[in-house]
């Protein structure tokens, strides 16, 4: 789960991380009023969407010459003009795709004079089972570009969560950023606080870009991107309250209501599978046979009739879907129960596209018999390869 920049900064401030003062705004009036709470005379008005590249982004509704989603303002009037441009309009960045995202929130912050920018991030390193700290002297830039063009400017080390943060980790961060003296101390202290926040919130990512040195020698977090491990959110109801559903795909939000793991893709073959690995294999074999999956959908190991029905509804809500492949391995799940659920779901949603079902596992023969006697145009498959070939052929036939 991701949160907005202003939420991330408010959260990090609770852990003692140095950030400039800022105020969230949901209207032009609130944005203008925010200037009265800030030192000034320089302000930064920032569009709040779950995507990077806001400063270089373009608004669909504004002229191509208009500035992006991060603007400097030298008065309350200029803040109001920037807010009026942004709120309610669609910002397109390198990370949003052509569709862009509508801006519904702003963050008005105190402007600071920047002497130098750095990059600092904490991530889950699944390869080592540790927390990775990534630091670079090239802050304020796309880190992907830095990694591609000048990888030597990025340094990474890991922290064992069993022993936690130690003084030498702070020294490593300072050295990676090329800082010495008081700034090195500030870097070590800030990194330690960021690590504490990372562990304390069960974060999956805390990315600071830029971490800046101001003209008066202070180290400050000027932008923050924070994401959390969804499996740990049960321990953090305060973090769940920060979720902005308008920033998420509506289908994925709907799927979460039924505990379905669903990700929309760009293909035309809907997939309903139990097990993440099996779902990945199913998508791969669909592509191998010349078509493209319309989604990743894992119904889990204990799906019942209601779950299968809701999964069908999710798949069919996508107008691009021209056929559905159901691939179920019945271990805990009995194939006869799944077959009954598929039939009930197909009848309830008034299925109008080809449906191929591959069942394997407990009571598989009984499950196939139930499908065959359903009276519905359900095509049964013997194995995964057979299923992929049949759904691609059925879709081509129906076209």
TrEMBL record:
Mg(2+) binds at residues 209, 223. It catalyses: GTP + succinate + CoA = succinyl-CoA + GDP + phosphate; (S)-malate + ATP + CoA = (S)-malyl-CoA + ADP + phosphate; succinate + ATP + CoA = succinyl-CoA + ADP + phosphate. Residues 9-254 form the ATP-grasp domain. Binds 1 Mg(2+) ion per subunit. Substrate binds at residues 274, 331-333. Its cofactor is Mg(2+). One of its GO terms (molecular function) is succinate-CoA ligase (ADP-forming) activity. Keywords: ATP-binding, Ligase, Magnesium, Metal-binding, Nucleotide-binding, Tricarboxylic acid cycle. Pfam families: ATP-grasp_2 (PF08442), Ligase_CoA (PF00549). Its EC number is 6.2.1.5. GO terms for cellular component: cytosol; succinate-CoA ligase complex. The keyword Metal-binding applies. ATP binds at residues 46, 53-55, 112, 117. Transmembrane segments: none annotated. InterPro entries: ATP-grasp (IPR011761), ATP-grasp_succ-CoA_synth-type (IPR013650), ATP_grasp_subdomain_1 (IPR013815), Succ-CoA_synthase_bsu_CS (IPR017866), SUCC_ACL_C (IPR005811), Succ_CoA_ligase-like_bsu (IPR005809), Succinyl-CoA_synth-like (IPR016102). Pathway: Carbohydrate metabolism; tricarboxylic acid cycle; succinate from succinyl-CoA (ligase route): step 1/1; One-carbon metabolism; formaldehyde assimilation via serine pathway. GO terms for biological process: succinyl-CoA metabolic process; tricarboxylic acid cycle. Heterotetramer of two alpha and two beta subunits. Succinyl-CoA synthetase functions in the citric acid cycle (TCA), coupling the hydrolysis of succinyl-CoA to the synthesis of either ATP or GTP and thus represents the only step of substrate-level phosphorylation in the TCA. The beta subunit provides nucleotide specificity of the enzyme and binds the substrate succinate, while the binding sites for coenzyme A and phosphate are found in the alpha subunit. Belongs to the succinate/malate CoA ligase beta subunit family. This is Succinate--CoA ligase [ADP-forming] subunit beta. It comes from Sandaracinobacter neustonicus.
């Amino acid at each position: 789960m991701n949160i907005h920049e202003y939420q991330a900064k408010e959260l990090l401030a609770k852990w003692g991380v140095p950030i400039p003062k800022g105020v969230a705004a949901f209207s032009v009036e609130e944005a203008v009023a925010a200037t009265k709470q800030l030192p000034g005379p320089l302000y930064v008005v920032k569009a709040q969407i779950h995507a990077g590249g806001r400063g270089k982004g373009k608004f669909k509704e504004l002229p191509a010459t208009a500035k992006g989603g991060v603007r400097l303002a030298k008065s309350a009037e200029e803040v109001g003009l920037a807010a009026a441009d942004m709120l309610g309009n669609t910002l397109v960045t390198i990370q949003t795709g052509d569709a862009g995202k509508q801006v519904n929130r702003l963050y008005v912050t105190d402007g600071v004079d920047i002497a130098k920018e750095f990059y600092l991030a904490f991530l889950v390193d699944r390869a080592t089972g540790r927390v990775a700290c990534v630091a670079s002297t090239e802050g304020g830039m796309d880190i992907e570009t830095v990694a591609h063009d000048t990888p030597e400017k990025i340094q990474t080390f890991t922290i064992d969560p069993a022993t936690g943060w130690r003084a030498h980790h702070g020294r490593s961060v300072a050295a990676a950023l090329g800082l010495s003296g008081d700034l090195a101390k500030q870097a070590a202290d800030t990194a330690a606080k960021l690590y504490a926040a990372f562990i304390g919130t069960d974060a999956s990512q805390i990315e600071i870009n830029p971490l800046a040195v101001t003209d008066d020698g202070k180290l400050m977090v000027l932008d923050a991107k924070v994401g959390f491990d969804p499996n740990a959110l049960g321990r953090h109801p305060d973090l769940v309250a920060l979720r902005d559903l308008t920033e998420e795909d509506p289908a994925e939000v709907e799927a979460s209501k039924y505990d379905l793991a669903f990700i929309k893709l760009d293909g035309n073959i809907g997939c309903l599978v139990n097990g993440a690995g099996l779902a990945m294999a199913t998508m791969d074999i669909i592509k191998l046979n010349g078509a493209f999956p319309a989604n990743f959908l894992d119904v889990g190991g204990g799906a019942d009739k209601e779950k299968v029905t809701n999964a069908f509804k999710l798949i069919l809500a996508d107008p691009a879907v021209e056929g559905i492949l159901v691939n179920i391995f019945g271990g805990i799940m009995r194939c006869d129960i799944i077959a009954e659920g598929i039939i009930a779901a197909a009848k309830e949603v008034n299925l109008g596209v080809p449906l191929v079902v591959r069942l394997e596992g407990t009571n598989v023969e009984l499950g196939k018999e139930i499908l065959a006697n359903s009276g519905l145009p359900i095509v049964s498959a013997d194995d995964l390869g057979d299923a992929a070939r049949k759904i691609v052929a059925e879709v081509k036939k129906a076209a």
